[in-house]
Amino acid sequence: MLRFLLRAAGLVALLPVGLGAATASQRSFGINYDKNYFLKDGKPFRYVSGSIHYSRVPRYYWKDRLLKMKMAGLDAIQTYVPWNYHEFKPGVYNFSGDRDIEYFLQLANEIGLLVILRAGPYICAEWDMGGLPAWLLEKESIVLRSSDLDYLSAVERWMGVLLPKMKPYLYQNGGPVIMVQVENEYGSYFACDYDYLRYLQKLFHHHLGDEVVLFTTDGASKHYLRCGALQGLYATVDFAPGGNVTAAFLTQRGSEPRGPLVNSEFYTGWLDHWGHPHSVVPTNTIAKTLDEILARGANVNMYMFIGGTNFAYWNGANMPYAAQPTSYDYDAPLSEAGDLTDKYFALREVIGRYNHLPEGPIPPTTPKYAYGRVTMEKLGTVAELLDDLSPSGPIRSTYPLTFVQLQQYFGFVLYRTTFPKNCSEPTPLFSPLNGVHDRAYVSVDGVPQGVLERGKSNMINITGKAGANLDVLVENMGRVNYGRYNNDFKGLVSNLSLGQVTLIDWEIYPLDIDGVVGHGLNSKGGESKTSGGNPSRYAAPAFYTGRFSIPSGIPDLPQDTYIKFPGWTKGQIWINGFNLGRYWPVRGPQVTLFVPSNILVSSSPNNITVLELEQSPCGIQKCAIEFVDKPDINATLQYESNTRKLFTKDLWLDPLII
Ligand SMILES: *[C@@H]1O[C@H](CO)[C@@H](O)[C@H](O)[C@H]1NC(C)=O
Ligand SMILES: *[C@@H]1O[C@H](CO)[C@@H](O)[C@H](O)[C@H]1NC(C)=O
Ligand SMILES: *[C@@H]1O[C@H](CO)[C@@H](O)[C@H](O)[C@H]1NC(C)=O
Ligand SMILES: *[C@@H]1O[C@H](CO)[C@@H](O)[C@H](O)[C@H]1NC(C)=O
Ligand SMILES: *[C@@H]1O[C@H](CO)[C@@H](O)[C@H](O)[C@H]1NC(C)=O
Ligand SMILES: *[C@@H]1O[C@H](CO)[C@@H](O)[C@H](O)[C@H]1NC(C)=O
Ligand SMILES: *[C@@H]1O[C@H](CO)[C@@H](O)[C@H](O)[C@H]1NC(C)=O
């Protein structure tokens, strides 16, 4: 009760100064608590918004996607700011090219879209570590998203860079940003640290001014709002289509007895994980619930309006460990490639009942081109190319070091040691503490032996003589983005044993694959060795290359395309040095990768580099990848039926806090 009174007092104090006194030339944005709506320039305002993450769409296509959103009748867009996308190393920032958030905001402004900015520091978003930089884990015991002093000092430095950049884009300063979200679904996190939220509130006001409307977003249940809401931060909720809209908004009323109703994440689709069926949410269900939300005058943000792509290594993961694929299509109204879908037109029709739809043509779906098969040729195995891939050479350590200890945050690290004794009988190589994060490709004297995988397989049998070379190439498949498992260390995070013996005396090779691929990787042309035990199943992780030219005489090329991987198993692919992401067609559901046209050139051949981790078709047949004009992110594969339903929002709940 005391909390409630304090809260009500806080809300009164939050009312922006000068409400109602705004003239046409005075831009203001605030909340009218008596009438339960937002006030824009002193007039009642309700928004219909859609999510787009600039980090998941190439800059080249920002304008196209934003225009399509505008033409759907949206008033606003909502975007996250992924901290780790901008501050790659402590104090080293990047806001250029695809990371130029200011340009993105300017475009939205020009197109006439308002912006709801979700500034973090934590964003979830199916993004690596929920947007938190992995280097925060250099303090091993750090309590993320809490008043931990080391965490706060990193947050303070970052927000001291980001928020001053954002200030001129606030609505009252002439820009498009009407509201700024603090943290994200904090009520779903175990820490429940009100001091942390208060600290962020102060920090945001310090940089953005007192007028700015700050808000929080939490799942629509009392349980989430308990730790997610804070006096002075306007509490909003998120919920899916098909449920009871009245009941969902009543939970918001539990925290905000007065003020506008807001669903900050109304799900137009859902996320995917490797090895699980592609998520599809029927258009009818979404259209019906959207209509109910709008009919009651509530504000809504559709998450996602366009999902886009987890390029490079940016996908996140959930627990029990399951990584999200490269595509973040999300079954959203605009496809991963920005295509107009039936869902787009159906939702536009619903929005049109409440908003004036802009006149003029909707930008058409971009054409896709099937460039066809490209022959690939082997450059060499990771072991053969090691001098190039690891220019700094190995770090020697008795016990394994994690990626963070090596200050390599993404990609792959090679851990090498030798057999301490003769193992002529099959001997278990295993990770007693399930410490392979996340997937390890094991070779003995260059001969592939098998794969260890986090949460799935922590033991394989191997043989070898004393002194034989043991290579364990470890892949970081994406850090957990949700819940208490955010402190997700990568690499060999605990010891490996061979039989009864703990393996020691490692040579650990950090691999600068992206740097090397960018400059061109040269062939070592070694003969590849096939697997000892199971010859057809594994080959040593290796690089392949191929080139293709854009056909001349056809207008409007290069166009977007999709890559298919016939006969390939799992790996990473680059075109002209741009890291397109992970492929894993044997696990699915995604079997093609989206290639935006802006990374292709017509003036010279385009260079393809593939790192295949398990088995390529090369050697068995003439090997190739293939460019096709249709995506396939919905392959029917063998799924693990017991985990099918694991990732519905409510089941994400951390068992320890229920
Ligand atoms: C910054 O990011 C852009 C866009 O991804 C990239 O092209 C550029 O190389 C990066 N700059 C640095 C210094 O890393
Ligand atoms: C929806 O929830 C409200 C409030 O809890 C309740 O009164 C109503 O009966 C529910 N409607 C349905 C169809 O269950
Ligand atoms: C391992 O076995 C070889 C014979 O295959 C033998 O010569 C050698 O001494 C053995 N080494 C150890 C350390 O037992
Ligand atoms: C490893 O070898 C042992 C003994 O030969 C056998 O019992 C076990 O099933 C094998 N495990 C695997 C994963 O192959
Ligand atoms: C490996 O084992 C040693 C000896 O038991 C222990 O001191 C060390 O902390 C372990 N290392 C890791 C990364 O678990
Ligand atoms: C492709 O690789 C060649 C050889 O390394 C290089 O000269 C050329 O510039 C690259 N092309 C592109 C488009 O990056
Ligand atoms: C995916 O496959 C399911 C089952 O075959 C189908 O119902 C759904 O429409 C497909 N979705 C897409 C986006 O192709």
TrEMBL record:
The active site is at E185, E265. It is an enzyme of class 3 (hydrolase). It catalyses: Hydrolysis of terminal non-reducing beta-D-galactose residues in beta-D-galactosides. GO terms for biological process: carbohydrate metabolic process; ganglioside catabolic process; keratan sulfate proteoglycan catabolic process. It comes from the Eukaryota. Its main location: other. Residues 38-353 form the Glycoside hydrolase 35 catalytic domain. The keyword Signal applies. Residues 541-602 form the Beta-galactosidase galactose-binding domain. GO terms for cellular component: extracellular space; Golgi apparatus; lysosome; membrane. Keywords: Disulfide bond, Glycoprotein, Glycosidase, Hydrolase, Lysosome, Signal, Zymogen. InterPro entries: B-gal_1-like (IPR026283), BetaGal1-like_ABD1 (IPR048912), BetaGal_gal-bd (IPR048913), Galactose-bd-like_sf (IPR008979), GH (IPR017853), Gly_Hdrlase_35_cat (IPR031330), Glyco_hydro_35_CS (IPR019801), Glycoside_Hdrlase_35 (IPR001944). Residues 400-512 form the Beta-galactosidase 1-like first all-beta domain. Its EC number is 3.2.1.23. Belongs to the glycosyl hydrolase 35 family. Cleaves beta-linked terminal galactosyl residues from gangliosides, glycoproteins, and glycosaminoglycans. Homodimer. May form higher multimers. This is Beta-galactosidase. It comes from Gopherus evgoodei. The lineage of its organism: Eukaryota, Metazoa, Chordata, Craniata, Vertebrata.
